[in-house]
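Deliverable D2.4 — example input (structure tokens):
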């Protein structure tokens, strides 16, 4: 498992950086409710924070950051909220693309884009394409993503390969299975951060989280600061990871 030294200028920050960090951006609705504002205001504040924290992670030298932006279950929200989120994705991706380019971030989308409005799909393709020349942090944006759907998709793709004679059933093993996932070629998750007080995985990166360290904070996502990120990294650095050993 690769562990990386943090850039020296960070002083107080922990020495051991996780290679792959996941964040579930939770609590936007409650943040807005506390302020007597519509849920859309919480999502806007959450999107703003997404930009800041992503830049911060790239500056720290984190190699892979996976952010849960929209799950396969989020379609069940009221149409008005879903529509608002689609508009927000479009506006923010357009703006955030500049950050990604400035910060040498390569963006990948994980999930099924086909359900999104065509203009959003086109923008997603453009963001992936333009940032593909970047060599710094890889940002996986999980949009219309579900962990179970990802596993089913992988199983189907493998079955297709067997049917076509490219693989035999006995070829299947853990490392090969990983190659059929959206995150093929990337390390498993080291650290999962979930703000907002909920302590569950919510169908996020089920395979990749097998040995991840979980850090749950009682902070709503729009209030999650760089100092909170540092705190999560400190907690991670203090954990003893045994990967099933002693
Ligand atoms: C969960 O909070 C948040 C979401 C379902 C949406 C997150 C999306 C963004 C912050 C926009 C990000 C923008 C880009 C371009 C990636 P919640 O609504 O479930 O909060 P609650 O549990 O308090 O109701």
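Example output (designed residues):
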């Amino acid at each position: 498992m690769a562990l990386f030294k943090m850039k020296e200028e960070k002083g107080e920050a922990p020495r051991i950086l996780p290679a792959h960090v996941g964040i579930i951006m939770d609590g936007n609705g409650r943040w807005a409710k506390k302020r007597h504002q519509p849920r859309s205001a919480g999502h806007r504040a959450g999107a703003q924070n997404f930009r800041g924290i992503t830049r911060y992670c790239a500056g720290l030298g984190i190699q892979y950051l996976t952010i849960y932006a929209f799950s396969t279950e989020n379609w069940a929200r009221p149409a008005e909220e879903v529509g608002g989120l689609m508009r927000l994705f479009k506006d923010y991706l357009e703006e955030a693309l500049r950050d990604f380019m400035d910060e040498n971030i390569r963006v990948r989308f994980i999930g099924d884009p086909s359900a999104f409005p065509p203009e959003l799909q086109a923008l997603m393709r453009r963001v992936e394409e333009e940032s593909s020349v970047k060599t710094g942090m890889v940002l996986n944006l999980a949009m219309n993503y579900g962990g179970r759907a990802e596993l089913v998709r992988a199983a189907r793709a493998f079955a297709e390969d067997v049917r076509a004679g490219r693989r035999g059933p006995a070829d299947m093993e853990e490392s090969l299975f990983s190659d059929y996932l959206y995150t093929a070629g990337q390390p498993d998750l080291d650290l999962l951060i979930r703000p907002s007080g909920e302590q569950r995985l919510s169908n996020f990166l089920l395979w990749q989280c097998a040995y991840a360290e979980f850090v749950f904070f009682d902070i709503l996502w729009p209030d999650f600061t760089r100092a909170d990120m540092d705190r999560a990294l400190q907690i991670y650095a203090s954990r003893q990871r045994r990967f099933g050993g002693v």
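Residues 1-11 have pLDDT under 50 and may be disordered.
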